[in-house]
Write a structure and sequence with these properties.
Blueprint lengths: L2 E8 L3 H10 L7 E4 L8 H4 L4 H4 L9 E6 L5 E5 L21 H9 L7 H11 E3 L13 E5 L6 H11 L15 E4 L1 E2 L1 E2 L2 E2 L2 H5 L10 E4 L2 E9 L2 E9 L2 E13 L2 H11 L2 E2 L1 H6 L6 E2 L5 E3 L3 E8 L7 E2 L1 H8 L2 H7 L9 E7 L10 E6 L13 E10 L6 E4 L10 E3 L6 H18 L2 H4 L4 E2 L8 H11 L1 E2 L29 E3 L14 H21 L1
Parallel strand pairs: 1-2, 1-14, 2-11, 5-6, 14-27, 15-16
Antiparallel strand pairs: 3-4, 6-8, 7-20, 9-10, 12-13, 13-14, 17-23, 18-22, 18-25, 18-26, 19-22, 20-21, 21-22, 23-24
Length: about 525
């Protein structure tokens, strides 16, 4: 006999955890959450520093790759994605950023009715428990803890001094009325531990809510339909094929890569393309997997023997080991680092309405996402383009549901993106050449010989890759290429909704974890309103 629940949520990432947690608050509503990874509640996930173990490896990580990128000299890019409850919020750098107000107003202009900044701000506030900021822009009673850094690193003041020397403004709160400026990031942490979407919305209730069932190591392979309506999910667990049924809705929350993949495996997508893979079309929806957007990112890196930085060296490792006791006692010190401790949002031209680049200033040298280890200690500075014009896609490699999807971000596919990145490079270099930061540099790892604009273009094509913010592949709207409507319901199919970053019409100007949690919060409200109306 197949188990039946009101809602079956596929994917325990930021959106899935938020919507499952909120829907299961009603004891009369039953929710099943399927997650392909594990529970993600051990010390590796909880200790912020351990992201350096997860991002480069297959630990709690799908470890995806892209197809060769023509804009990057044919290189294959790397796409880490969280695998486990919390999804990418269990392996990310924990930076709490919502994006610019303009982004959400732009969504509304594009046809995403009900998603303007005024519409979404209440959900950001509802999700947030901010220990430092209050007022019109912040919440202090939500499940998602947001805190200032607890690393106590003196380099913070050096970074701010460099920002002043380079004549950039200082910003205390990137999620308030204004965004432009440099400063210190707030993080999704609590008492120095990572606070993933699972810790906020799911872990506390797995044993206390009988109406919430969480299945881990359960990878969805197909959505089940009856008469044009989604009625359940087929999944694999312990090498067995299983099914679970949904009375009200199947909610897909598998992320910008795997949500479109699951739809296509289930026959929803471009009919001709599906038939090439031997998949019988259930519903022709050509926008599935299209409109992939991601932030192209370049990293400056410098060797430094300053005691403020971490890395692979006897002194660096010794310094870290000596602070384990402090971390256990106080939840403070270098083990609470998210590495990208400082940064901000800058305009490469004064005439721009909104910042067009974002910086992440890191406390270690980073080469190829940490997959290439370098001896010594040092620091890095990422610069990413916030609203690239390039559009990519996600497709099927085969009809095998366990095969990874074909991921094509089309990085630097548009000439304008390359030129905007050149401007971002120069803007970031101004900061790196400020006296306060120059004093820390012993060796420039990647850009010592870069002088002309052509040199910059060459190093960008040689080194740009993702900064982990893919969105848009099941975008909301009402045009023929839209996949979901503004209530996140899949066009043309009953009982099927998508609740993750794939529904974003355009990439927001910032990190995508907080906006994806907001989408989960808003989706739960919309679902509850529909239930009441019926």
């Amino acid at each position: 006999m197949t188990d039946t629940y009101d809602f079956v949520v596929v994917g325990g990432g930021s959106g899935g955890c938020a919507v499952a947690g909120r829907l299961s608050e009603d004891p009369g509503t039953s929710v099943a959450l399927l997650e392909a990874g594990g529970t993600a509640d051990n010390w590796v996930v909880k200790t912020p520093y351990a992201l350096s173990l997860m991002v480069p490896s297959k630990l709690n990580n799908w470890h995806f790759e892209t197809v060769p990128q023509p804009g990057l000299n044919g290189r294959i890019g790397y796409q880490p994605r969280g695998k486990g409850l919390g999804g990418s919020s269990a392996i990310n750098a924990m930076v709490y950023i919502r994006g610019h107000q303009w982004d959400y107003d732009h969504w509304a202009e594009l046809g995403a009715t009900g998603w303007s900044y005024a519409d979404v701000l209440p959900y950001f506030k509802r999700s947030e428990s901010n220990s430092d900021f209050n007022g019109a822009y912040h919440g202090q009673s939500g499940p998602l803890h947001v805190n200032k850094l607890r690393t106590d690193n003196p380099v913070h003041e050096i970074f701010l001094q460099a920002a002043r020397e380079a004549q950039f403004r200082i910003r205390d709160d990137f999620n308030g009325e204004e965004q432009e400026g440099l400063g210190l990031y707030q993080l999704t942490q609590h008492n120095g531990e990572r606070w993933s979407a699972a810790r906020a919305y799911v872990h506390p209730y797995m044993a206390t809510r009988p109406n919430l069932r969480v299945e881990t190591q359960a990878q969805a392979t197909r959505i089940l339909f009856e008469g044009g309506r989604a009625v359940g999910v087929e999944y694999r667990q312990n090498d067995e094929a299983r099914q679970i049924r949904a009375r009200r809705e199947v909610i897909v929350a598998s992320g910008a890569f795997q949500s479109p993949q699951l739809l296509m495996l289930s026959g929803i997508g471009d009919a001709a393309t599906l038939q090439q893979h031997g998949i019988a079309p259930t519903h022709h929806l050509p926008g599935v997997g299209q409109n992939l957007q991601d932030h192209p990112d370049f990293i400056f890196a410098y060797q430094s023997d300053s005691p403020y930085f971490t890395g692979t060296s006897f002194t660096g490792i010794g310094r870290l080991l000596s602070r384990i006791g402090q971390y256990r006692r106080e939840g403070r010190g270098p083990l609470t680092t998210n590495f990208a401790e400082c940064g901000g949002f800058l305009k490469t031209r004064p005439d721009l309405d909104v910042p067009d680049v974002q910086l992440h200033f890191g406390m270690a040298m980073v080469d190829d996402h940490g997959r290439k280890r370098r001896w010594g200690t040092g620091f890095s500075c990422h610069v990413c383009l916030l609203r690239p014009k390039s559009r990519g896609s996600v497709g099927l490699a085969s009809a095998d549901p366990l095969a990874p999807p074909l991921i094509d971000p089309n990085f630097l596919g548009e000439a304008d993106d390359l030129e905007a990145m050149v401007a971002g490079y120069k803007t970031t270099r101004r900061l790196m050449e400020a006296p306060a930061l120059r004093a820390l540099q012993q060796k420039d790892l990647f850009t010592a010989d870069v002088r002309t604009d052509d040199d910059i273009r060459a190093i960008l094509r040689a080194r740009v890759d993702t900064v982990y913010h893919p969105v848009g592949t099941c975008r909301m709207g009402s045009d023929p290429m839209a996949v979901v409507d503004p209530q996140l319901r899949v066009h043309g199919i009953g009982g099927l909704r998508i609740v993750d970053a794939s529904v974003m019409p355009t990439l927001i100007g910032g990190n995508t974890n907080a906006p994806t949690i907001m989408i989960g919060e808003k989706a739960a409200d919309m679902i509850r309103e529909e239930i009441r109306a019926n």
